[in-house]
Amino acid sequence: MIDTDTALARCQDLVALARRMGADAADAVARADSSESVSVRLGVLEEVERSEGEEIGLRVFVGKRSASIHTSDFAPEGLRALAERAVEMARHAPEDAYAGLAGADALMTGEVPDLDLSDDSEPGPEKLREMALAVEDAARAVEGVTNSNGGGASSGRSLVALVTSEGFSRGYSGSGFSLSANVIAGEGSTMQTDYATRSARHFADLPSAAEIGREAGERAVAKVGPGSLPSGPMPVVFDPRIGAGLLGHLAGAMSGPAIARKSSFLLGREDEALFDSAIRIVEDPLRARGLRSRPFDGEGVACTPRNLVECGRITGWLTNVASARQLGLGLTGHAARSSGGAPGVSLANGHLEAGSVTPAELMADIADGLYVTGLFGQGVNMVTGDYSRGATGFRIRNGEIAGPVAEITIAGNLLDMFRAMIPANDLEMDRAINVPTIRIDGMTVAGE
Questions:
Q1: How many CA atoms lie within 13 A of 43 on its CB side?
Q2: pTM above 0.85, yes or no
Q3: Helix %, strand %, coil % for the chain, to 5?
């Protein structure tokens, strides 16, 4: 895989080419990645895969018109043709009053901070195979597990470099390692499947194969023989693995582009108390070894930690250049982009701060409720906030887990759900988006 200096040099050359071809402004982003993965099933090697990829994207502006194009051809004549084609495309594109580059005064300055994202460990195929076998063996060793969908282990590296005609030129790289197992419990019509997976920037930060495999096996066994539960309003408790999606919906509704399009259920609610006053939701793109950590965003703006929700209120929209200009706001360092196309907006590492009670205490007064461990379907309307998802999990009776349930639908409105949200104290920072166990009263559950 190429190094950062080489990637930056390519971007600088491409931006210079575009300017010579007639672009008023331009930026280029280079991406490279390599990965190695091994999968096994029932103790037998299934697949060993290695991939490498490099590409570079160019975005050019001619007046208020722009175009974007990307390639994996790094030959000088190929890059020249790319720049020429991009400028010609821009000349024929419709005008956009808001598109453009981040100005020099908004760009990150100084050295790129060391976020400890890269680990030089190279497990290699044999070590990855050993890990994949171990995680599947641990899952299959759980009493009640009857079959396996497999175990897997992977390692990889990635690099990002960005250059703009406003003077920005920086890049960073990182590593990633993962381990997973997916197994089946029960027989015939009672069969259930579940999984466990972990990812980390540093190899040493991965939990043991025994821990991950055991979690996968125990989750699958616990789901065997699901029943249903009565329909009606009741408290719903979200497992941390599932509850993280609620933060994703919040971030999507806080997106500057969504606000500019008037397609967010948070529009006009900037000053409302949307959560309990004790709720705080934090984003930290500079967290050491964070899975989504990054020093700067897709437009060269420095990323900084911030509270997304403070004292129950949101703290503002998440912007890129286009949405900031349209809304008359500043840049927040949330621009995200691939090699092609205009930047969007994305959240970095986020978490809901822990509450003060244990999960058991959180559920203790629930006479009849639902503990959700799985969701499916896409029933979330980001314009109205209406929420309706298929669910699996466990019935709660008199404060205790009473048995598995399936073929359930849970429904509500995200605004009501946010107001009713109560977090437990079991927050763990092992994913990109982390939440503790969450209780939400008053949701509508459709069961039998």
A1: 5
A2: yes
A3: 25, 40, 40
User: Tokens 């899952």 — which residue?
Assistant: 139
401, amino acid identity? I
Element (H, E) at 80: helix 76-91
CB 360 within 8 A of CB 351: no
User: How deeply is 315 buried, as exposed, middle or buried, from its count of CB atoms within 10 A (0-12, 13-18, 19+)?
Assistant: middle
Residue 330 tokens, joined = 């500043």
d(CA 293, CA 201) in angstroms, rounded, equals: 10
Task: Give the CA radius of gyration of the chain.
Answer: 24
- pLDDT tens-digit profile of 415-435? 999 999 999 999 999 999 999
pLDDT digits (tens, 9 = 90+) for 212-232: 999 999 999 999 999 999 999
Closest-CA residue to 311 (of 341, 356, 355, 275):
275
- Identify the CA nearest to 396 among candidates 237, 192, 243, 220: 237
> Could you tell me which residues are beta bridge partners of residue 405?
227, 393
- Contact 418/445 with Cβ under 8 angstroms? no
All structural domains of the chain, each given as residue ranges with its CATH number in brackets, are 4-35+49-106 (3.30.2290.10), 226-448 (no CATH)
